[in-house]
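Researcher: Sequence of PLC-beta PH domain-containing protein follows. Predict its structure.
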Amino acid sequence: MAKQFEFSWRIPVPEVLQTGCVFDIWDEEYSVYESNCMVKVDEYGFFICWKSEGREGQVLECSQVNDIRLGLAPKVSDTKVLADILEKSSHSLESRTVTVCSGLDLVNITYTLLIARDPEIAKVWFEGLRKITLNTKANNVCPMTQLKKHWIKLCCMVNPSGKIPVRG
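Model: Prediction complete. Tokens:
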């Protein structure tokens, strides 16, 4: 008799990641700075989502995350942006930065830097994201769960008026 196998793809998402936290976001590739973003992870651990005042929501798919790093300071050439980041906390920039490395391959990697207000928040998010992002089983879910995943992504990307953006 064959042994029954149960396919469990879900990794529990820590409550602090689902509740969310305010970070500053620095995208090194495009030199884009977003201040005071509410960053959250959905209950299934599919996406890291963030939204700042007056901007469209942004989404990073957890299955595309290759690595999470703690303690790498952003390379910010704009002195105004750097001053804004530094004035928000007395702690060192390195100790409060979580770097999310993502991409479809290991050549074209995007670095998204989450800059917390204090090192404790950065450490909690680093550990929490590390637990959920290396879940390869989440890529093999049923079609209904894939539909739910796409719906969650659309809901995270709402524009400032709360509507799902449609591009022509």
